[in-house]
Amino acid sequence: MLVIENLHARIGDEDILKGLSLTVKPGEVHAIMGPNGSGKSTLGHVLSGRPGYEVTAGTITYNGEDVLALETEERARQGIFLAFQYPVEIPGVSNMEFLKASVDILREHRGEEALDAVTFMKRAREACTLANLDHSFLKRGVNEGFSGGEKKRNELLQMMLLEPSLAILDETDSGLDIDALQVVAEGVNNMRNDTRSFVLVTHYQRLLNFIKPDYVHVLADGRIVRSGDASLALHLEEHGYAWLDDEVA
Amino acid sequence: MPNNLMQQPLAAASAAAPNWLAAAHAEARERWQAASLPTRKTEQWKYTDVSAIDREFVPGRAVSVDAAALDARVPDCGGARLVFVNGHYDPALSSSDPAAGLHVARFADADESQATLIQAHLGSVVGMDRHLFATLNSAALSDGVFLQVDAGATVHAPVQVIWLTTAQTEAFAVNQRLLVLAGDNSAASVVETFVSFEGEAASFTNGVSEFVLQRGATLNHYRLQLETGSALHIGGVHAHLDRDATFNSFHLGMGSDLKRIDIVIEHAGEGAHAEVNGLYLPRGREHIDYHTCMEHAVPRCTSSETFRGVIADAASAVFNGRIHIHPQAQKTSAILHNRNLLTSAEAQINTKPELEIYADDVQCAHGATVAQLDELSVHYLRSRGISRDEAQVLLSFGFVNELVNAVRSEALREFLRHLLAARFSRDGAALTQEADA
Ligand SMILES: Nc1ncnc2c1ncn2[C@@H]1O[C@H](COP(=O)(O)OP(=O)(O)OP(=O)(O)O)[C@@H](O)[C@H]1O
Ligand SMILES: [Mg+2]
């Protein structure tokens, strides 16, 4: 279970998150919507321990552990996965090597047996097929020269192989064609179970037609200003965020 | 004379050398007597301190070596193999491969016609006046390898020449020499590997390799500098390319306190092409210096050169890439790229392109970059559970991979992948193979 309480975070001397609280229980799917620049990606970055982000107040625990005390890689080993809004290109490092290194370490941490190369290749190819990426993407440099949509599907591919217990998808649906959107939705739906949780950051209600969320939150100016069920997303789609200003003020 | 450093090796060489080398000896010794060791004030040696060799050396001694221990450290490409241990030819470790059109001889047992060919070409490629250590090499010459490829012959298996240095109680010197004569329209490959077994005493290998490529000849050359610790190396690769000849030369430098390699390619016939790629990977307190020089003396030649370095810990490296396009060398195309990755705050690189272009109708592209590890890339990898150290390994490997993948010989490519995987301490090699399946 993820528990975020009164989280304040800044970049340089700019306060971005200003008292954000959120609880995600095992098996739940939460959607976070909100205007550009409201702090949605910042939340993901803080959860992943990205350099440059300073937490000035508040707490984050995951399954009772103090997340903020953990190194980035330790958070991943605890089962937290962030699909980046802007995945990073790493020329020269093949996707395959990268995925193998990652899967190896996560399996080791979970006390699972190491996968031999053949089994791993088989799984990687299957995940590729599910993410609708040609197998040749395994040989290419990590995200190197991938199109916007291909980068998003490569994040999906990683999520499927790494099998996290909590996945935060930061606009994984943005810039995708209709078919690719279905692919992402199916990827998430196939992985949904009683213990695995998802946080979907999205601008589009459309995604939520395919992945039915348990909760929808509105993040504005660094805080969750509204929470509801799936119908909140429909309301936002129709009315935008302006009506919230009056209520927040 | 620079100092007494080579007195004993020079005396020993005189005694051991075949008679027909006497004239070359005398001339080189005269030059050497008049010379002095370079200092940091010598332009070509500004960033490389040679004080480690400013001491007395004894000649290398022949010792017996465990074949399996050597095999574990060098590539296996099939083909003929000549092994020298502390400068002495070791027939037990060597093997021959009677390929048609290929003639392999040592200076020490060259027959009369070979001796004539060697005399005709030895020292014709390397400019003694500009390369002090080549002068020393000629002065100390007693044995070396002569490879001759007949005109029109294609030799598939690479010839391997291995120079091993191994424990001796006193610091010792090794004089390495190679002469390759590639006949018109011939094709062949040569792998030079320098390797050492850890010993207490320092060794100093002074090497010169000369390549004469006649019309239309193609030669693939690989030079792996794998010596470790106090096995020091100063070496030169000098190639002379006649019309339409192609020289592909790959270099790897890793592992010891001091390495300095000069690579000089002379385009002497129209249509000649040189491709020179290299990697240098010093760590700890190691120092590696590559000085390259492309001499474009005639029109319509091409050269392409890519060197990449990963400099770790408190290591340092030098890359100096000179392109000299003479006034008559119109329609030359010369490309030079050098990229460096510093993986620690103490790591140092001095990189300098040196362009001298006296012709106007030429294409010349060059660039040198120095970068640190990209923090965002490191973060991305860590966010997938990979440790910081492992991320550094992956990123360093990624940085050099492209050049390894471009290596023409499959056997060598595999060897390099495993070597670099071990150097960067991981098992990526098997995986890349899998991905190809
Ligand atoms: N390095 C930085 N220095 C100062 N401000 C920054 C920096 N990086 C981000 N910000 C600001 O932080 C705010 C929150 O950014 P964030 O990326 O979290 O927004 P978001 O909600 O994800 O927006 P979007 O919907 O456009 O992705 C923005 O106003 C942004 O300009
Ligand atoms: Mg964002």
UniProtKB/TrEMBL annotation, chain A:
Gene3D superfamilies membership: P-loop containing nucleotide triphosphate hydrolases
SUPFAM superfamilies: P-loop containing nucleoside triphosphate hydrolases (SSF52540)
Keyword Hydrolase assigned: no
Stretches assigned to the ABC transporter domain: 2-246
Keyword terms: ATP-binding, Nucleotide-binding
Highest taxon of the lineage: Bacteria
Keyword Nucleotide-binding on entry: yes
Stretches assigned to coiled coil: none
GO molecular function: ATP binding; ATP hydrolysis activity
PROSITE patterns: ABC_TRANSPORTER_1, ABC_TRANSPORTER_2
Pfam families per UniProt: ABC_tran
N-terminal signal peptide: none
Entry similarity comment: Belongs to the ABC transporter superfamily. Ycf16 family.
The protein, known as: Iron-regulated ABC transporter ATPase subunit SufC
Taxonomic lineage: Bacteria, Pseudomonadati, Pseudomonadota, Gammaproteobacteria, Cellvibrionales
TrEMBL record, chain B:
SUPFAM superfamilies referenced in this protein's UniProt entry, alphabetically: Stabilizer of iron transporter SufD
Location of the SUF system FeS cluster assembly SufBD core domain: 169-399
One Pfam family here: SufBD_N
Domain SUF system FeS cluster assembly SufBD N-terminal: 11-161
Coiled-coil intervals, chain numbering: none
GO terms, biological process: iron-sulfur cluster assembly
Matches recorded under NCBIfam families: sufD
Family per record: Belongs to the iron-sulfur cluster assembly SufBD family.
Protein name stated in the entry: Iron-regulated ABC transporter permease protein SufD
